[in-house]
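Per reviewer request, we include the raw input and output of the structure prediction for the construct analysed in the revised manuscript.
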Amino acid sequence: MKKLMPWMLAMVLASVTMLAGAQDHERGTADEAVALVKKAIAYYKQHGRDKVAAEVNLRTPLLREKDLYVFIMPLDEGPVIAHGGNAKLVGKRLYDLRDLDGVGFMQKFRDVANSKDGKGWVDYRWPNTLSGKIEPKSTYVERVGDLYFASGIYKPVK
């Protein structure tokens, strides 16, 4: 058994190293987040609200990329319509949600969506779904009618 221990340890270390590398590699970029939102919007325009919500909530590969997912919210303070990161949030009102620094980022999403351009980025800090660590995050928001579509990236920690 002792002869297997170094081999087993080497395999575990190699697996952890590969997993850590995969997690870093799996991070979506700002351009990919914008492209994913635009893809979700195009799907919405072609297939309607119910079908895009189903695709997002079922976490199908169509509207996911690396660690990126889409969520869809109404412009009013209504409940979450779709959430590719956690479908349990669908139907919940999250507009009072704040990050660890007290930033009301959900309200900021709505402010960006309601702005003249109807799109833009919101910065805040949030737990990384891969590492569990609190990291800087930036979410791209874009308004379509009475909804907004969004996808966020974790920024590299310097």
